[in-house]
Design brief:
Layout (H helix, E strand, L loop, with lengths): L20 E4 L6 E4 L10 E10 L6 E8 L2 E7 L4 E7 L5 E8 L7 E8 L9 E5 L2 E3 L1 E4 L16 E3 L12 E10 L9 E3 L5 E3 L11 E3 L19 E3 L6 E2 L10 E6 L4 E4 L4 E4 L9 E4 L9 E7 L6 E7 L14 E9 L2 E8 L3 E4 L11 E6 L4 E6 L2 E2 L13 E2 L8 E7 L6 E6 L33 E7 L5 E4 L10 E6 L7 E4 L6 E2 L9 E2 L4 E5 L2 E4 L3 H4 L4 E7 L7 E7 L5 E4 L8 E6 L8 E4 L6 E4 L7 E2 L1 H4 L8 E4 L11 E7 L6 E7 L8 E3 L2 E10 L5 E5 L8 E6 L7 E10 L2 E4 L12 E11 L7
Amino acid sequence: MTMFGSQWLDNPSRGYDIDQSIRFNDGDSPYLTRTPGSGATDNRKFTVSMWLKRTTLTVDHVLFSTPTGNGRTQTYFDDSDKLNFGFYDGADNRSLVTNMQFRDTAAWYHVVWAFDIDNATAASRLRLYVNGSEADGTRNNPNTGVDSLWMNNGDVNDIGRQNPSTNAYFDGYMAEIHSIDGQALNGTSFGKTNNDGVWIPKKYSGAYGTNGFFIDGRDSSDLGDDESGNGNDFASSGLAANDQGSDSPTNNWCIMNSLSYDSTQITLSDGNLTLAWNTPNGDGGTTALSTFDISQHGKSYWEFSAANSSVNYSVGICTNTSVWRKPRTQSAFAELRYGVQDASTASMQVTSGDGSEDDTGVLATTGSEVGMMAFDPASGKLWVGQDGTFFNSGDPAGGSNEQGTLTGTNNTGIYVNVRDFSSAEVGAVTFNFGQSGFAHTPPTGFTALNSANLPDPATADPSAYFQTTLYEGDGSTQSIDQAGNSTFSPNFVWIKNRDATDAHALFDTVRGATEVLSSNSTAAEATNDDTLTAFESDGFAIGDDVIVNTNAESYVAWQWAEGATPGLDIIAYTGNGSNRTIAHNLGVKPGMFIVKARDRDDANWGVYHSAVGATKSLFLQSREAAFDSDEYFNDTEPTASVFTLGVNAQGNTDTKTYIAYVFAPVEGFSKFGSYIGNGNAYGPMVNLGFQPEFLLLKSTGDNKWIMKDTKRSPFNASSLSLVANNSDAELTGDSLIDINSNGFKLRTTGSGVNSNGVAYVYMAFAEHPFKTANAR
């Protein structure tokens, strides 16, 4: 079998390697169990730390349970995906329930919970830490009068289930499980922030206490073996040797995405590697997509098998992550798939809209056989094979005799997909992206789908080029310092008062400090010496104008650096009244640009977006739908060196002065794409290839420009919004979305972001690249 190492081996100073995890499949009723002795070091203090990757949502899933009589200590996810930690003994139920909802299934969380019943501060008796930061929520704090806790006091300890009840089994992956008897610790004992601002594991070097333990699953024949030196081993049930895999916090692997499938038609299991369709939907097309965008991965290889000799399935690759329900009815959906309809028939189908189908005559993969796929995103070529041989003399290493070709775009990406081939039969397929070792050697140059094999991002630390900064007004003058992992001198600063109906205030280094434009207005540029007064090395300075600095009011500032690396060029020009081009210095085609007249009050903010195209314009100050006219961009797409303007007030009136903000996509840092709403609270999942910090969203129809960021909404669901086209104060509970390690998920039926069948465009900037991001 072929195994793959950790992304951290080349730089041990960044953290230490975690080689494996334990997979818990709730259908197998899996758990680890042990009954500790009664001689605890201190049963009034303890800490548990673990890394985990969720696979099933919206059901109760227990991480740790210690039952006794009428009471228990328990940490679990409830059916709203919030984490609960506390103890329960009938009349005296004491717990902390997070505000945060844990709904990211593409990467790993680090969770620490600590108990200290004798702490003089009530809120410090139950504490939870997620990815190094303390999490709060709804509390019912325990009293110091509690005599004991059941964690280390002679009662059963169960990992992965609630006992004595035989339900709420955990579904997902666990790694690096520490239990500390007699100490209440925080996350820094088990993790640290690396040079790129990412929370990573570190080796625990402290004491475990009498009943403490350390389980890392390194021995596949004894997954509950205690490595602390205490010999506090756990017995296992419902776990087997193949439940040890190399998916880990330091090398995250591709699985099928719980956020990109139709749960009414498909059941995911075995760590989201097996997919079964148990109730065919009547006309075929039910699909599920991978967590990885394989167009960003380089040459990749994976294997699959048909469970229980299933037929009626297809495995392949597809574009457009936001479409997953019956995709063959969607004209935006394109796929290349190898499908088995019966025990002797296979075909290759290229689908765009209704698509077309060609029989290949290749052997079906229906039982114990192992199917193989290899994909080269540079050429779009896909090879399909079985049991060590690629069909039709395919040679992935040599780049010849491919089964088919599919190329994506910057807006869509490409994903591994599986779906029922028709509605005739039920079936199931199991994937292996390499986390358990391949049955066959991948072709030369092709690698498994894991984070170690993702290319290093050009911007490993996005805070060096973009930051969201929150600050409080003082009604005087002050410097606003950046609070990110890195600092930079911003070239473009966009400020909004969160508490009042003040105008948006946009500044840049080309026009100069104190020169104000407002995204919610067509007004000309105004000089205001009490606004942004200087661009500083790590932020900016402000005066006392209300739009930037009212006393005791809260503000947000989004800051960008200019340059080809972050993909921003700020250009001042004078209109000439004729169709023309304007040069930019980005070296790639822009994904979006915004132009505004500086010296006239009646000119729109013209917005080109690659997903809308150059035949139409959006207006930043307006809800208006995309407007079709060649006057704006002369129906000409921008290039790697220029963008084109027609003749109109918003972008090119003779002798008038203009400013243009030109943005180009940078892999792992920024993206300018689109998605189709479904009008469902379980909305589209939009895969960006990074964890976004900032989002600007707009319907191509009549609706507002929604602004989201992770500093104002630091946990999911993201509930705070500002609107670029009006001066309103911050909205609470508006346009709910989840911001995840690999993109964002719509969590509302609201028309602002998710009307059924409506196209939306977005502008997104990263907090962390997906290669290094933790689950959020």
